[in-house]
Specification:
Helix content of chain B: 25-40%
Shape of chain B: elongated
Order of helices and strands of chain B: HEHEEHEH
CATH topology of chain A: 30s Ribosomal Protein S18
Radius of gyration of chain A: 11 Å
Order of helices and strands of chain A: HHHH
Structural class of chain A: mainly alpha
Number of helices of chain B: 4
Helix content of chain A: 40-55%
Largest sheet of chain B: 4 strands, antiparallel
Oligomer: heterodimer
Number of strands of chain B: 4
Radius of gyration of chain B: 34 Å
CATH architecture of the domain at 7-112 in chain B: 2-Layer Sandwich
CATH superfamily of the domain at 7-112 in chain B: Ribosomal protein S6/Translation elongation factor EF1B
Largest interface: A-B, 22 and 26 residues
CATH architecture of chain A: Irregular
Chain lengths: ~60, ~160
């Protein structure tokens, strides 16, 4: 059971930074599906949201 | 035939969301006019607003460099705002052009979305839940009461120790 299914989240929004932070590692990279345990569809939605959040400066591209 | 198809495509109404970052150098009282400009661009094409997030000062995850005249300006915070609307597809080009023209908007983002509220309804998430079956109990330390020892007893004890 993953976070999205557990909390019945249908859409992943790029503004939900706290939610998206659950899916990035300390370096700021997107975690793999084996770690997130998301479905393929959910993983794609999370990836897109993270990339949007990065572009607008809400999430880092890389974290030192 | 081709022209008809083109016309049909232009009249399609879709739901979009636009996110933008306004430079922190802008005064708070001027924010409304910038947002008003964005709203006007959408209204020009007959757009209808669905939801909106007023620009609020946000700390950025990385420093954004912006060209300003001959040099560059670095921003580590900015006013972040967003607007969700329904409009014809032509609005995207117009909106992006207006964002690029505006010197106060340092970053922007326009994409297709859905009418429903996409924000997650939960707060304080944790990936790894800590499950503790047994509770830790603290036992108060017993304080031994100190009995005053006379010097004679102390000397006696010392001599007993040394003679052995």
């Amino acid at each position: 059971m993953n976070i999205l299914t557990q909390n019945d989240i249908q859409y992943v929004d790029y503004k939900d930074v706290d939610l998206l932070k659950q899916f990035i590692n300390p370096h700021g990279r997107v975690m793999s599906r084996s770690k997130t345990s998301l479905t393929a569809k959910q993983q794609r939605a999370v990836e897109i949201a993270i990339k949007r959040a990065r572009l607008i400066g809400l999430l880092p591209f890389v974290q030192k | 035939m081709k022209e008809e198809k083109k016309e049909d495509r232009e009249q399609v109404v879709r739901i979009y969301e636009a996110g933008y970052l306004i430079a922190p150098t802008v005064k708070e009282e001027d924010l409304e006019s910038i947002v008003g400009g964005i709203r006007n661009t959408i209204e020009k094409v007959g757009g209808v607003f669905i939801a909106e997030g007023a620009p609020a000062m946000t700390r950025l995850s990385y420093v954004i460099e912006v060209r300003e005249g001959s040099g560059t300006a670095e921003h580590d915070r900015a006013y972040f705002g967003w607007i969700k609307f329904e409009a014809e597809t032509a609005v995207v080009g117009m909106l992006e052009a207006s964002f690029k023209r505006s010197a106060d908007i340092i970053r922007h983002l326009v994409f297709r979305t859905v009418r429903e509220d996409t924000r997650a309804k939960i707060k304080a998430l944790s990936l790894r839940e800590v499950k503790r079956t047994d509770t830790i109990r603290t036992v108060p330390r017993k304080i031994e009461e100190s009995v005053p020892v006379s010097e004679e007893d102390l000397d006696k004890a010392l001599t007993d120790l040394t003679t052995e």
